[in-house]
Amino acid sequence: MRSSGTPALRRSEGSGRLRGQTRRLPGPQRRGADEEVRRGLPDALEAPFKPHGGHARCLDQAVRRVLHGGGRRQAVDAARHAARGAAPDFWTTTSNKQLNFVQHVKSLLKIHGRAAVVLPDNVLFEGGAGEKIRRKLLHECEVHTILRLPTGIFYAQGVKANVVFFDRKPGAKEPWTKKVWYYDLRTNMEFTLKERRMKRSDLDEFVRSYNPENRNQRKALWNEKKNPEGRFRVFKYEELVARDKCSLDIFWLKDESLEDSARLPWIDASTPSCGRGEQPSRAVAAVPGFPTGLPAA
Fold it and tell me: Residue 134: is it exposed, middle or buried by C-beta count within 10 angstroms (0-12/13-18/19+)?
């Protein structure tokens, strides 16, 4: 396999296994793909697919990233292939790679398995299949934390992405998600790839707020009267599912760059072109108990 390409996974006829195909990628995407080829494919993607859906191997933990044109194309192709075959562990069929990837990661997890997935903003607010997937994710998994990543940490400018943390749970009538904690590391935060790089210390407050030892003892930093600039805030399940299209794209801080902060939008309907970045791995690696599946800068 040439180092200038990345493998796109396809199912071999009759074997149920996946084989590689080299694709040429430009610039930063190629460098990211080279790194992943050197590291080797994740075990879950090397495992054979069962003939009638489901996976031969499941994971206790998953750390994944999916952005437009990113180096995880092999996983996206696997998710799309499963969706075309009406995989029984997928909630719906869609051509959206990012939405399929969410379903793919969930299907890879064992019961009580944990995941941290870097996703572009559109996954949090897109309607149609996106709304159905979000409602299913909130009901069948415990979505407990969403970290809003800052811009300026990706190769492409203006990329907006989030780290979504969730645990897979067994089947139940009542939804597993009771509340979702948001940490806004984006509003009024300025980072660049050279002059103002994001450092581990920039995540200290988030790590303390995350409280991996006991998530039930988390404390909000935001208070409407005492601390309206607090970056850590909780929303109940009922509040989230009542929002238009069950949108999980929420922010509450006033953006100092906006001339009229009173018109601050709740939903950013734009879908910027996303590129591969290195910094999101720090947000996951900084949390005790999660594997460092993404390379740190």
Answer: buried
Residue 293 is assigned to a structural domain of this protein: no
Pairing verdict, β 59-65 and 109-120: parallel
Range of the domain at 13: 5-285
Q: Using one digit for the tens of pLDDT, what is the confidence trace for 102-157?
A: 999 999 999 999 999 999 999 999 999 999 999 999 999 999 999 999 988 877 77
Give the tokens for residue 213: 């030892």
Which structure tokens are listed for 252? 């509450």
- Unique residue bearing structure tokens 């206790």: 60
Helix (H, G, I), strand (E, B) or coil at 287: coil
Domain count, the chain: 1
Q: Tell me how far apart the alpha carbons of residues 57 and 79 are, in angstroms, rounded to a whole number.
A: 15
Q: Does residue 291 form part of some domain?
A: no
Q: Residue 242 contacts by C-beta under 8 Å, 6 or more apart in sequence?
A: none
Query: What pTM did the predictor assign?
Result: 0.65
Q: Is residue 290 part of a domain?
A: no
What would the two tokens of residue 115 be?
Answer: 């995941």
CA distance 277 to 156: 8
Whichever domain contains 37, its CATH number is 3.40.50
DSSP state of 154: B
For residue 170, the tally of other CB atoms under 10 A from its CB is 8
> Who contacts 260 (Cβ-Cβ below 8 Å, separation ≥6)?
none
β-bridge mates for residue 49, sequence order: 55
Q: Could you identify the residue written with the tokens 């607090």?
A: 230
